[in-house]
Amino acid sequence: MPLTLRRGSVTAITEELAELVRLEVDGLPCIAYPGLTGSVRPGDDVLVNEQARLLELGSGGFDVLYANLTRGLGLAPEDGAHVMKWPYLPGQLALRHAEESDRLAATLDGMPVVCCTLHSQVVPVCAAIGRPVTYVQVQGGGLPVPLSDAVRALRERGLIDTTIASGPCFGGDVECANVASALAWTAEQGCRAAVCAVGPGITGTDSRLGHGALALAEAANAAFALGGRPIIAVRASEADTRARHRGISHHTQAVLDLCLGEVVVAWPDEVDTAGWQEACAGLPLAHMGRGPADDATFFRSAFAAGVVARGLMQ
Questions:
Q1: How confident is the model at residue 311, as a pLDDT?
Q2: Cβ–Cβ under 8 Å, residues 96 and 84
Q3: Where are the domains of the chain?
Q4: Interatomic CA distance for residues 299 and 305, integer angstroms
Q5: Residues 172-192: tens digit of each pLDDT
Q6: Was domain 5-68 assigned CATH 2.60.40?
Q7: In whole angstroms, what is the distance from residue 166 CA to residue 91 CA?
Q8: Do residues 10 and 24 touch, judged by C-beta distance below 8 A?
Q9: What predicted TM-score, i.e. pTM, was given to this entire model?
Q10: Can you tell me whether residue 99 is helix, strand or coil?
């Protein structure tokens, strides 16, 4: 399992946010997480992981900054942190986890938990709920919470107030060891709903069980076991050219097959989704390069899950 690393020089900074920097290294697109690698400036001598770009992966057509040799060596660990993310891997780091200091609720007490098998469902789900929720990112797609422009837009709109990076994910307002403790922490904070999703770029192998969507079965099972109300956001499409994702995606069925407790399935034809376009106006709606005009069924189906959650909020 070799790392494909390349040494280069930063030639441009194209976007600089507190938690994410988009840049160019020797003229090639790259992203950096300054919380991990330190700040980055033009002319810096860097190492980048270029494997995803070389493989021409659809969701990974850019390099990722691995180390800044100019100003990113000898960085101090987070104060008071000792729980490791990615333990025993080359990129291991210690981050403070909420469970180390904060109380966790014993029960979710009926809190709705929407489970999104694709990151592109998060925007319509949150738009339908229409109130601030906690966003919990789970494994199965991109691990960095800061990678999501959608989450940033939802925070600016006031539809997400807290982000949690669970398990191997990182970069949330809060880090939690797993999705169960993330949901228990959310309930203890008094939040009325949670939205769980994989990050951008779901893992997929073209098989029934070999995909990242199954992380949402784990989330649904944890929510049920803790006394919450798990809601499955149905992945549906009339525009996807792949037979396994046309109509109701096989990802949705696979998640349902592995749910061990009672879940609510937000079938779009059974939920009033009137006004979904207006509710989502001004928010980034995109899935596989398609927008709402190209595949309304996909976004309306996700919106239905948010409508159900809103109805269950106490």
A1: 96
A2: no
A3: 5-68, 98-312
A4: 10
A5: 999 999 999 999 999 999 999
A6: no
A7: 17
A8: yes
A9: 0.95
A10: helix
